[in-house]
Design a protein that fits this description.
Layout lengths: L5 E6 L5 H14 L4 E5 L5 H11 L7 H25 L3 E5 L2 H11 L4 H12 L6 E6 L2 H11 L10 H17 L4 E5 L4 H15 L7
Helix pairs in contact: 1-8, 2-3, 3-5, 4-7
Bound molecules: thymidine-5'-phosphate.
The site of thymidine-5'-phosphate (TMP) has 13 residues, from helix 4.
GO molecular function, one term: dTMP kinase activity
Pfam family, one: Thymidylate_kin
Organism: Neisseria leonii
Length: 211
C-alpha cells in the first residue's frame, strides 16, 4: 500500500481556510479515502488548552515562550494524533502546521528562522508535510474579512504591517520549496479556488491509485 499523505492547509487569518477545508473534505469523501482532519494549535487535550491561552487577547507572552508553546502543542499533536494515523494508513489534513510558526512567530514577530528550524528538527525529526495548500490573498482583503466576521483573537488584533510580514514569510517559504507547496489564490471566484485546491490534491495523490 502507498504511504498515507500528510497535508496541511495554511495562510493568513482571513485567507479563506474554512471555505477551503469544506472543499478538501468533499474531495476526500468523493474519492473514498480514509482521512483525519485536525488543527493547530490544538488537536489534543493539551493542545486545545494551549490554543485557548495562545489566542486569548488577555495572555501576555514573550516571543520565545509563544514559539515554544506552539511546538509543545505540536509535539503532543504529532505523538498522539498525526503519527498514529499516518502509521495506520490514514491520511491527515491539518488546519495549520509549522509553516504558521515560520510565518507568524518568524515573519510576523521576528523570531529567527534558524531558531524555529532547530525546534522543527527536534520535534518533527524528518517529518514534513507532503503537500501544503497555501491560501494567499492580498493583505488588505484578509484584514477586511477578519474585521467583518468576528471578535478578534490575540493574533488577529495585530496591525496591518504584521500581516504583511506574515504573508511574505509564507510566500518566501513556498518559493523556496515549490515542490511541496500549492499556492492558491483565494480571492478568485469560488469555483476557480475550488479547482485549484482539487488540482493540487489530485497531483499529491497521483501515484496513489497507480500502486
Ligand atoms: P486559526 O486556526 O483560527 O487560524 O487560529 C490560529 C492562530 O494561531 C492564527 O492566528 C495563527 C496562529 N498560529 C501561530 O501564530 N503559530 C503557529 O504555529 C500556529 C499553528 C498558529
Amino acid at each position: 500500500m502507498a504511504r498515507a499523505r500528510f497535508i496541511t492547509l495554511d495562510g493568513m487569518d482571513g485567507a479563506g481556510k474554512s471555505t477551503n477545508l469544506a472543499v478538501i473534505k468533499d474531495w476526500f469523501e468523493a474519492n473514498r479515502l480514509p482521512v483525519l482532519f485536525t488543527r493547530e494549535p490544538g488537536g489534543t487535550a493539551l493542545g486545545e488548552a494551549l490554543r485557548g491561552l495562545l489566542l486569548d487577547p488577555a495572555t501576555r507572552c514573550g516571543l520565545r515562550s509563544e514559539t515554544l508553546l506552539m511546538f509543545a502543542a505540536r509535539q503532543e499533536h504529532l505523538a498522539q494524533v498525526i503519527l498514529p494515523a499516518l502509521q495506520k494508513g490514514i491520511h491527515v489534513v491539518s488546519d495549520r502546521f509549522t509553516d504558521a510558526t515560520f510565518a507568524y512567530q518568524g515573519g510576523g514577530r521576528g523570531v529567527p528562522a534558524a531558531d524555529i528550524e532547530i525546534l522543527e528538527n527536534w520535534v518533527q525529526g524528518g517529518l514534513r508535510p507532503d503537500l501544503t495548500l497555501l491560501l494567499d490573498v492580498p493583505t488588505e482583503i484578509a484584514i477586511q474579512r477578519v474585521a467583518a466576521v468576528r471578535e478578534k483573537d490575540r493574533f488577529e488584533q495585530e496591525e496591518a504591517a504584521f500581516f504583511g510580514r506574515v504573508r511574505q514569510a509564507y510566500l518566501d517559504r513556498a518559493a523556496a520549496a515549490p515542490e511541496r507547496y500549492a499556492v492558491i489564490r483565494s480571492d478568485l471566484p469560488p469555483e476557480d479556488v475550488c479547482r485549484q485546491v482539487e488540482q493540487a490534491l489530485v497531483q499529491a495523490f497521483s501515484d496513489w491509485w497507480a500502486v
